[in-house]
Amino acid sequence: MLLRKITLAVTMALSANVAFASCGDITGKVSIVGNEFPAIQTVAKGAADCAGDAVTVTSNLTADHQKINLAGLQGDPAEYTTAIIANSSIIALMNDDVIRPLDDLIAAHGADIPKSNLITIDGKVMAVAFMANAQHLAYRKDVLAEIGVEPPTTYEELLAAAEMIREKGIMENPVGGAYKSGWNLAQEFVNMYIGHGGEFYKPGTAEVAINNAQGVATLEMMKALTGYMNPDFLTHDSNATNAEFEAGNTALMNMWGSRIGVLMDDEGAEEVVYSNIAVGGPMTVGGGTTPATTLWWDGWTVAKNTSDDNAKATFMAMKNGTSPGILNDDTMGEAVWMIEGYKPAPVNAGVFATIKAGAKPYPMLPYHGLLHTALGDNLADFLQGKESAEQALADTEAAYSTAAKEKGFLN
Amino acid sequence: MTAKTQRRSHALNLLLIAVLVIWMILAAFPFLWTLWGSFKVEGDFFSKADWMNALTGPLTLKEAGGSFTGAGYHGAWIKEAFGLAAINTVIVCVFVVTISLTFGTLGGYALSRSTYRYAFWFLIIALIFRAMPPITLVSGYLPVFFTWNLWGHLPTAIVVLVAINQPFTLWMLHSFFKNIPKDLDESAMVDGCNRFQAFRHVIVPVMWPGVITTGLFSFLLAYNDFAVTAMILSKENQTMVPKISSFLGTTQTKGNVMFAVASVVSVTAPLFVMVLFFQRQIVSGLTAGAVKG
Amino acid sequence: MKHKTFLWFVLPSSLAMLLFIFFPIVSVLIQSVHVDTEQVIKEVKNCGPFGCETITAVDQEATQALKRDNPLGRFAGLSTYFDRRHLALDEVRAAWGNASGAGDFFSQLLNLPFYKAMSFTLAYTFIVTPLVIIFGFIIAVAVNGAAKWVRGPLIFFSLLPMLVTPLVGSLIIFWMVDARGVIGAALQYVAGDPNLSVKASTPLTWVMLMVYGVWHSAPFAFIVYYAGLQSVNKDTLESAMIDGASRWEQIRYVIIPHLLPLTTFIALMQLMDNFRVFEPIVSFSAEAHATSLSWAIYNDLGGETRQLSSAAATSVLTILGICILLLPVLVRTWRDFNHK
């Protein structure tokens, strides 16, 4: 017993030393800007462990991070030395050339970062990913058992199951979905369009091409789904969709892997709801083989307009913040960490299934943010039955083209 | 119009009471509901199953072990150090109100005394300045503030809030000063004071009601501001409203929504004291004609 | 007042407004007549945790070179103002040409983002502003008639809609009007329709936004009117009473004229604030049913790729819109000023 205690003490001392040493010999300031969800809080905390006499570590984690990160990196010297971003939001930083390639820092100090976590664009490492996310099926075991149906693997099966649940009078609107007009709705279109095998642009150009058979099929499928949703679906973001699920109003939904944890815990719902929540893989649609969903990563970058010392300090601190050392019982379930030593919990099974099913990553194109905004603004009219699918797609294309001209992508 | 100038008929009295009762319900019900709900858990207060849950609180009973829970207050004030945000808000409000009023009284006084046309155009331009949507202004500030390392500090937010509120302050104070008879300061000037001395010794002593009223509106603007403070204050310097918004977040973490609800209830209490305290000044200030166009 | 003295007195506030409002307005004007330089695009290989693929990316060297030559971007004149997201001249002309009738023309017009936003903005402004004034007046008269000792609490509770931060206030009210919320359930009961949902219907969403707007702003009108009532000349009132004026006639001929200047002030501020309606749309997730010019700016700035020129043009159009809206009031003020 005594021996074990001693060993434990020694190991702890050693690991403390290791944690300290892994920050290396650094001086300067580390300043982080990023979103505020728990996994990113954990990373920032891990980075803050590198703070010392010669290094200051500060972080600004806020839901408004996308509105300030570009301006915050543009100054010289930049206010922030690193921005935590996702595969969609890195684009804005790259378009304005405010993040630096990490190749030399990786060569000198980053040999232990897994190669697959490096985001390489045109041969240069621009970011280091640390977690993955994706939307996939979440369902109520007990409800599907009651109607005697296996968890759906296609959207067509999901519709059939929804119809059976409604017919049996178990639930009036059994399908949930984050269809809030704006970003969420556009995201669902992107998922479904990819599932139908659609291409967003004419190859190699910024010219949009979504007003086609796949586009119409995508919208028709979305409209069919909304037929089984709460009539307020255009106001439901992922928070509201989860709230519906926890209230026991829905039984089937396409939900973010990162949001499953709060569903399955024992807070906010009746026991019959939270103990029966299960996750499935992503669904396909229209006989396609590509899942109708997208893969996402979150990662960190290093500012261009900062001294080399600061850049090195930032690199080491962020590496420490995303090292195996941050994983413990509390943080393990916060995300699908792409960190050695991560043990997937049942809540994360869906994201792994999505990766395995060969889902495509969210398009990382310089002009895709404009299309996402245009989709979010123009599809609601169709879902409300105010105009035809073709008209909604034509409106989207026109809105995108106007924006792309202003940004210099089209002439 | 005061209560005793005329005997009111019963019907009129009833109508009056009915109007008041209906308005009190409309005005106070959401707040009282929030006050009640702030002692429940999120699953009950924002129940999507049945609104009765907010009253009966079945999940509160299960999760917190009682009909009421102080978890929201505990989380906001102790876990999330809401007190720090409260201190920041006090600092911002005190400075915004003081500076706005100093600038505003000087400018408002001059505008009320000048007979030249440019005084009129000055007021009109100030009005047009007020038409600029604040989001555009703030997004315009960001690059400049970041470049000059002004971003994130309380003084920056204070100066911006003062500037954005100037048009409103000027308009209100200008009309207030117009109602102070010109003879007052002009006779002082005949006695040998210069303009500033006349202002200092004759106008300042009589201007307080109007200044306090305008100050109250400046205070409310600074106190409730979200557009400016959310974008240009760093985490350490956050004031209360952005702090409340950070409890809500993009992806709501369980229970944090109740932190926001609890903080809203707790920041409304000091306002109650303040309104009761300033009630008379508001009235006497506006009475003096502070807002006559 | 001498010019020089005037200058010294207004200097602090002018300086503040010059730096923080005037310069931004100028930069917004400049921004609105420029668009970004051409982005040179090239195909690159992109590798990440989910494998490699060939994508397009901005050719930084070439693009930065273009940007260095034109730091403001390309001069575009008024083309941003006339494009589809703003005044949409081409689209309006096309709709005029091919529309089968007035109804078709308007439905085509309302499909364009600017006109869709304008339709709600104008409806909101012209419905909410008078209602705020009327309700504020009624409440002020009622509170003024109450016994002295209850007035303090009455004033506080009347101010509550304005005091509670809209961030959380609207969150709670948004839940209340949900089909399963307390107000939503009450409405279903009253309407006798168990499927009634305010959030799912465009007309009901408009009504909800307007009711919220009136509820939120009525306290402002109330407090101004309440104060104004304190200064009603009692002699005039009494002589009116002696002349046998009924209560209504007293209000009509003594009180309302007395409060007229206050009404101008409230109207001025409310017209301006309501024209810039924004917060309720976002808080009530009403984007699918109602948009406004301020919301359009927010949407341009909030996307993953920020559209600064478009937001700038919309801001300028907002200012112009407010100027047109306030013109009658301004003309009146001008006449008053010259009158003196």
What topology emerges from the helices and strands here?
The complex is a heterotrimer of chains A (411), B (293) and C (340).
Chain A: H1 2-22, E1 28-34, H2 38-48, E2 55-61, H3 65-74, E3 82-86, H4 90-95, H5 103-109, E4 118-121, E5 124-140, H6 141-147, H7 155-167, E6 175-176, H8 183-195, H9 213-226, H10 238-246, E7 252-256, H11 260-264, H12 271-274, E8 277-279, E9 294-300, H13 308-321, H14 329-332, E10 336-337, H15 349-356, E11 360-361, H16 368-378, H17 380-383, H18 389-406
Parallel strand pairs in A: 1-2, 1-3, 6-7, 9-11
Antiparallel strand pairs in A: 3-9, 4-5, 5-7, 5-8, 5-9, 5-10
Helix pairs in contact in A: 2-13, 8-9, 8-16, 16-18
Chain B: H1 10-37, H2 42-45, H3 52-56, H4 58-64, H5 71-79, H6 82-113, H7 117-131, H8 134-147, H9 154-178, H10 182-190, H11 195-206, H12 208-224, H13 227-232, H14 240-248, H15 256-287
Chain C: H1 3-32, E1 34-35, E2 41-48, E3 51-58, H2 60-69, E4 74-75, H3 79-82, H4 89-98, H5 102-110, H6 113-145, H7 148-163, H8 166-176, H9 182-191, H10 202-230, H11 234-242, H12 247-275, H13 279-283, H14 293-302, H15 308-339
Antiparallel strand pairs in C: 1-4, 2-3
Helix pairs in contact in C: 1-15, 4-5, 6-10, 6-12, 7-10, 10-12, 11-12, 12-15, 14-15
List keywords for this structure.
heterotrimer; B: 293 residues; mainly alpha; MetI-like fold; 3 domains; 15 helices; 76% helix; C: 340 residues; 2 domains; 6% strand; globular
The CATH level-2 architecture of the largest domain in chain B is identified as: Orthogonal Bundle
Strand content of chain B: under 5%
Count of individual beta strands of chain A: 11
N to C succession of SSEs of chain A: HEHEHEHHEEHHEHHHEHHEEHHEHEHHH
Structure class of chain A? alpha/beta
Q: What is the average per-residue confidence, as pLDDT of chain A, rounded to a whole number?
A: 89
Give the full name of the CATH homologous superfamily of the largest domain in chain B.
MetI-like
Give the overall shape of chain B, derived from the CA principal axes. Answer: globular
| CATH fold field value of the largest domain in chain B | MetI-like fold
Helix content of chain A: 40-55%
Count of the separate structural domains of chain A = 2
> Main β-sheet of chain A, in a few words?
11 strands, mixed
- CA-atom Rg of chain A in angstroms: 23 Å
Unreliable residue stretches of chain B: 1-5, 289-293
